[in-house]
Amino acid sequence: METEEHVEGNQEQYSLKNKIIAIIDVVVVRLVVYALIARGILILFFGGLETESPVAPYVIGVLWFIIPAVLILLFRRSFTAYGLTLENIKRNVDVGMSAFLIFALTFVGYIMLGPLGTSYNEPLGAIILTGIFAIVLGLILNMLGKRSKDDETTRANHYANVGIIAVILIAPLFMAMNLGKEAAPIVSIVVWQFVFSGFGEETFYRGYVQSRLNEAFGRPYEIRGVKFGMGLFITAFLFSLAHMLNTFDIYTLTGELAVWWGTFTFVGGLIFGLLREWSGSIVPGGLVHGLEAFGEAFGALFS
Asked: DSSP for 147-184?
C-alpha cells in the first residue's frame, strides 16, 4: 500500500526530470565508470581483459567500495543516508543472520541442479532457483514483518552471532584440510565472496545505486512494514543485468548474454534490497550475500 512519504517530501524532488537523471546516473556509474576503470586496470596492469592473475579480481573488487565512497564525498552526500553506517549494528547483524538461515534454503536448489543434469545458467536450473529464491523472499519478508525495529539485541546474542559468522567462514577451510584438498583456493573463495562479492556489491548496489534512486523516486509503498519504491526494482534489475553481462562484453559485443543467470539474481536483488530498506543499512544484506561464501566453498570442495 502507499505511504505518505511522497506527500510529505518535496514534490520537485520526485519530478520526472529527477527520476530520469537518477536512472542515467546509476546506469552510467555501473556500465561506464566502473566498467571502463576496471578495463583500464586490467589492460594496464595485468596484460589484458582475460588475465589469469589471482590478484586481479581483488584489485577490481576494491572498486565496489571506492566508487560509491568517492561519489558520496564528491557530491557531499551522507554515508548514513546511503546505508553505509554501523548504527544499530547489533540489531542489523541479528536480522542478517536470521535472514541468512532462511536464505540457506537456496543452497538446496544449487545441490539439486547436478543430479538433474542442469546448471544455474540453463532454463531448467534457473527456473528451479528462481522458484526457491521467490519462496525465500516471501519467508524473509514475513520475518521482517514480525520484527520490531525497536527490539534490542543483547551483547551476548551479538557475540553469538559474530561467533557463528566466524564458524561459517572458517568451516570450509577445515573441511578442505580434512579432505586433503589445497586450502589456498578455498580461502580465496571465502575472502572474495564475503568481502568483495558480499559487502562490496552491497555497498555499490544497495548502498549507492538503491539510495540514489530512492532520492528521486521516494519510497511510497509499504509491505509487511517495509517501505520501498521503484528504486528497489530498478536496482535489482541492474544487479541482474550485471550478472547477465558476466559472459558478454558490451564494448566489443563478444560473448553470449547469460539471460537465465539474470532470473534468480533479480529475486536475490529484491531480497538484499528489502533488507536494506527495512534496516537502513547494507549490513544485513551484506551478511546474507557474503555468507554465500560457505555454499561457494562447499561446492568447490565437492565439484
From this structure: --TTPPPPHHHHHHHHHHHHHHHHHHHHHHHHTT--HH
> Where is 246: in which H helix or E strand?
none
- Residues 184/123, Cβ–Cβ less than 8 Å: no
Rg (CA), the chain: 19
| Neighbouring C-beta atoms of residue 163, cutoff 10 Å | 10
CA 284 to chain centre: 10
Share the mean pLDDT of the chain: 94
Identity of residue 299: G
Cα–Cα distance list, 192 to 46, 47, 91, 186, 196 (Å): 18, 22, 25, 10, 5
- Number of structural domains (the chain) is 1
DSSP helix/strand/coil, 223? strand
Q: What is the pTM of this model?
A: 0.94
Instruction: Give the residue-averaged pLDDT of 143-155.
Output: 92
* CB half-sphere exposure, 119, CA atoms < 13 A: 7
- The per-residue pLDDT for 7 is 38
In the three-class reduction of DSSP (H, G, I as helix; E, B as strand; rest coil), residue 59 is classed as: helix
Domain range for 174 is 5-302
> Cell for 154?
543483547
Per the listing, cell 536496482 goes with 235
Three-class secondary structure of residue 267 per DSSP? helix
